[in-house]
Design goal:
Structural class of chain A: mainly alpha
CATH class of the largest domain in chain A: Mainly Alpha
Largest sheet of chain A: none
Number of strands of chain A: 0
Helix content of chain A: 40-55%
Oligomer: homodimer
Number of helices of chain A: 6
CATH topology of the largest domain in chain A: Multidrug-efflux Transporter Regulator, Chain: A, Domain 2
Largest interface: A-B, 63 and 61 residues
Shape of chain A: elongated
Number of domains of chain A: 2
CATH architecture of the largest domain in chain A: Orthogonal Bundle
Radius of gyration of chain A: 26 Å
Chain lengths: 156, 156
DNA sequence: CCTAAGACCTGTAGTAACTATAGGTTCAAG
DNA sequence: CTTGAACCTATAGTTACTACAGGTCTTAGG
């Protein structure tokens, strides 16, 4: 029972998705976004088949996303990888920019955490909303900080 | 030039937006989302006018957003504030939940920062992409185990 | 051989929180 | 009385998917 091309291993979209650890719809979505190539449908019937290189590419996309890159940025990175004149320094620079963005986000979130912390701490914890210091501070204008209460220990 | 109703102080949408420190389109957007009331157009011509309470509400929304609340959550908060049986503890609980979410986000971003840091550090800084350790790490296998995904494309 | 299940296909609509048009009306000044 | 600004409604775009609807294709069972 010989089969040319190893027929039982035909990588249809569902298998490709499993190999790249994404959903089928995600693959189709990347195709629509032109991040990956769309395998043509075989001329004489059958489903589209995904070459290993395409699955690799999807994995690349997911890895880059985990580092905070957007699909647009990842598209750039992928074009870069196809460019023989591209230099490593270019990639590193993009990573540095991303790092800066991540650091900014962290700072903003830490400020939010601090504000929430103070509000939660200052809140009496029961009673009508008219007396709720959290609601009050939201009603109050812009750059207002929460009312202070005795000491609050700091979080590491 | 006397005018009934203090004509020069009519708060049209642009003035309301300025007072709440948002764009005109944002006000209209909140109206569509039913977060604020839509002042009716005067029966006999003229523009819609925004009462102070509505502008307050917009400010409330912006303040709550700064703490990381989504518009959906803010809608709940606003309903709560209209409910005489609502308790301060309820608001505080929502703040606590939000604080938890913010902390999770911070942790995830710190992990990303760490990963980027290491990649940048390990990168040779020049040379072809074939030798770029950042690209390599993106190409390389992620935390991948083939078939971790459910066979069927439905997730709970 | 026929049927039914399941995987595939295309295309569209929904999510969050706006922003930005297009195309029309109304108002205030010159 | 004519600009020009501000208003009005309605729609499309953004991000990264997800979830259908409604059809086609393949394959396993009877």
């Amino acid at each position: 029972m010989r089969m040319e091309e190893g027929a039982m291993h035909r990588t249809t979209i569902a298998k490709a998705a499993r190999q790249a650890d994404v959903g089928v719809e995600t693959i189709r979505f990347y195709e629509r976004k032109a991040l990956i190539e769309r395998p043509p449908r075989p001329a004489f019937g059958g489903y589209r088949e995904y070459p290993a290189a395409t699955i690799e590419r999807v994995r690349f996309i997911r890895q880059a996303q985990k580092l905070g890159f957007s699909l647009g940025e990842i598209g750039d990175l992928l074009s870069l990888s196809a460019d023989p004149s591209a230099d490593c320094a270019d990639v590193r620079e993009r990573a540095r920019v991303k790092l800066g963005e991540v650091e900014d986000k962290i700072s903003r979130l830490i400020e939010i955490r601090h504000a929430l912390d103070e509000l939660i701490d200052a809140c009496p914890g029961s009673g009508a909303l008219g007396a709720c210091s959290i609601m009050e501070s939201l009603m109050g204008q812009g750059t207002q900080s929460a009312g202070t209460r005795p000491g609050k220990e700091k979080r590491p």
